[in-house]
């Protein structure tokens, strides 16, 4: 193999690695913004992570009925807008992503898979621990990797009797 071929292979590998890193960053930004969904939240940074023709959908017996399927930027905006109206839906909302697998399929298409763990306390004081499998298709547009098809399927949901955040001081050794 000549040096030009080796250099091209290295460039292709570097491009795939950079794409995978950008896709991971997009997904982590999505979760970070979802952690802060609240009454009055500015949806623009969150919606900027999606393509104009994006699909956001719940799958499986629990999430298909709960979340349904939103097709296109307007429908995705309407779905997220519900979480920004007063009164606040969440008192606490934290998303944890694990088991990341990103496969860059071409210069413009990629698929990411994660397992999500979500700890939430709702405005009414109820809390829940949830887990879901995420399968997310990404498209490279205008220099950025964006979500074009977000799919979430429940693995489990467990009600918790007390709020996640206990205001009592943490015990520390004296």
Which helices and strands, and how do they pair?
Layout: H1 3-35, H2 44-47, E1 50-59, H3 60-67, E2 69-71, H4 73-81, E3 90-104, E4 109-122, E5 127-141, E6 144-160
Parallel strand pairs: 1-6
Antiparallel strand pairs: 1-2, 3-4, 4-5, 5-6
Question: How would you describe this protein?
Answer:
The chain has 174 residues and is an alpha+beta fold. It has a single domain (3-160), classed as Nuclear Transport Factor 2, Chain: A (Roll), CATH 3.10.450.50. Helices cover 31% and strands 43% of the residues. It is built from four helices and six strands; from the N terminus they run ααβαβαββββ. It has helices spanning 3-35, 44-47, 60-67, 73-81; strands at 50-59, 69-71, 90-104, 109-122, 127-141, 144-160. Strands 2-1-6-5-4-3 form a six-stranded mixed beta sheet. Strand 3 and strand 4 form a beta hairpin. The radius of gyration is 19 Å and the shape is globular.
Main sheet: strands, sense, barrel: 6 strands, mixed
Q: Kindly identify the CATH topology.
A: Nuclear Transport Factor 2, Chain: A
Q: Which CATH class applies here?
A: Alpha Beta
For the secondary structure, the number of strands is: 6
- Helix vs. strand class: alpha+beta
Radius of gyration: 19 Å
Tally of domains: 1
Number of helices: 4
* Spatial strand arrangement across the major sheet: 2-1-6-5-4-3
Secondary-structure arrangement, i.e. CATH architecture: Roll
SS strand fraction: 35-45%
Unreliable spans: none
Shape assignment: globular
SSE pattern: HHEHEHEEEE
């Amino acid at each position: 193999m000549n040096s030009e071929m080796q250099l091209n292979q290295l460039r292709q590998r570097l491009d795939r690695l950079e794409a995978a890193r950008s896709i991971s960053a997009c997904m982590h930004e999505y979760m970070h913004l979802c952690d802060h969904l609240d009454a009055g939240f500015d949806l623009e940074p969150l919606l900027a992570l999606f393509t104009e023709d994006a699909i956001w959908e719940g799958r499986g017996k629990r999430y298909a009925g709960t979340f349904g399927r939103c097709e296109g930027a307007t429908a995705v905006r309407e779905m997220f807008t519900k979480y920004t109206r007063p009164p606040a839906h969440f008192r606490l909302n934290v998303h944890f992503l694990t088991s990341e697998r990103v496969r860059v399929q071409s210069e413009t298409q990629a698929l990411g898979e994660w397992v999500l763990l979500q700890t939430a306390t709702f405005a009414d004081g109820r809390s829940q621990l949830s887990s879901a499998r995420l399968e997310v298709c990404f498209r490279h547009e205008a220099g950025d990797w964006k979500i074009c098809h977000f799919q979430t399927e429940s693995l489990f949901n467990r009600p918790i009797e007390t709020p996640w955040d206990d205001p009592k001081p943490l015990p520390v050794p004296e």
